[in-house]
Design goal:
The chain is mainly α and 304 residues long. It is 81% helix and 5% strand. The longest helix is centred in the C-terminal third of the chain and has 40 residues, at 217-256. The protein is globular and about 65 Å long. InterPro entries: GPCR_Rhodpsn (IPR000276), GPCR_Rhodpsn_7TM (IPR017452), TAAR (IPR050569).
């Protein structure tokens, strides 16, 4: 499979793939070998992500000790990962394998689901990052600032906003191509800036960790907070590596008015990268969280 010839192997037909009052987009056929390889990999990722995220969400629902505020925000990320896997990625596979134009409504539905899940994922990461900032910056006031009631309203707001952006993307294609990526850029920049602030604060607290014995409750709490903070940073890194390629590519192509064949030839394979973070997130969170490890051990012991 020669990736350098992706654009050359794509076939363009004059049949409109999506039509509205002002835009006719010709259908671009993806090279079959490329389409099959990416589709198979994507399908494996979908199955893995579905099983892992359903299991993790089930753990949170069945174990009250796994419902701390940070867990609630991270569970929201798991829900968006699950929805992206079972609702968005099948559309990506269908488009990769398509040998004839998709229906206009399919484009609109895929765009809406993609925008909603992307918005939910990015905002869930932002709230989880802010949660870590508050717990390190104001540890004594944390429970007053971020109560379970507050977390519930924040999560509700995230999903209402995400569904609203998805619905808007369904009817307004240009917003999803240019405006919404700009909003995502602001969210990601906010997450990165907050993470930098967190690690500045964390460096100051390293000395405190070593001042207190590791068996001391305060020392244990500091270590636990540091570990949770690093986990959120890892989730952010995986999120960026998964979503940014297709988002930046889409944003750049729309602004530069690039070649339509090149755009569609690369966009759809890049969309399969989104599945990476959907598949890895639950494992990253569980492997770095002792409470989840213990809960899983109990489930395994009970089943055996």
């Amino acid at each position: 499979m020669n990736f350098s010839t992706l654009g050359e192997n794509a076939t363009t037909t004059p049949t409109p793939e999506y039509t509205n009052t002002s835009i006719d987009i010709p259908f671009v056929q993806i090279d079959l070998t490329v389409a099959l390889v990416f589709s198979i990999l994507d399908l494996v990722g979908i199955m893995l992500a579905t099983l892992a995220n359903v299991f993790l969400i089930g753990l949170v629902l069945s174990h009250s000790d796994l419902r701390k505020t940070t867990d609630v925000f991270t569970s929201s990320l798991c829900v968006s990962d699950l929805l992206a896997s079972v609702l968005f990625q099948p559309f990506v596979i269908r488009r990769l394998l398509a040998r004839e134009p998709n229906q206009p409504y399919e484009w609109a539905v895929r765009r809406a689901i993609g925008q909603a899940t992307l918005s939910a994922s990015s905002m869930s990461l932002l709230t989880a990052t802010m949660d870590r900032y508050i717990v390190l910056r104001w540890p004594l006031r944390y429970e007053n600032i971020i109560s379970k009631r507050t977390a519930f309203f924040v999560i509700s707001g995230i999903w209402l906003a995400s569904f609203a952006m998805g619905a808007t993307a369904y009817f307004k294609r240009n917003l999803s191509a240019v405006v919404f990526p700009s909003i995502l850029g602001v969210i990601v920049a906010s997450i990165v800036a907050t993470q930098v602030s967190i690690f500045i604060i964390a460096r100051k607290q390293v000395k405190k960790i070593w001042k207190h014995s590791r068996s001391n409750d305060k020392g244990k709490k500091l270590l636990s907070n540091m570990r949770a903070t690093k986990t959120i940073a890892l989730l952010l890194t995986v999120f960026l590596l998964s979503w940014l390629p297709s988002t930046i590519f889409r944003f750049y192509e729309r602004l530069s008015g690039g070649d339509n064949t090149t755009f569609h030839t690369w966009l759809h394979p890049l969309n399969t990268l989104i599945q990476i973070h959907c598949s890895l997130d639950p494992f990253l969170y569980v492997l770095r969280n002792q409470r989840f490890k213990k809960a899983i051990a109990k489930v395994v012991k009970r089943c055996c």
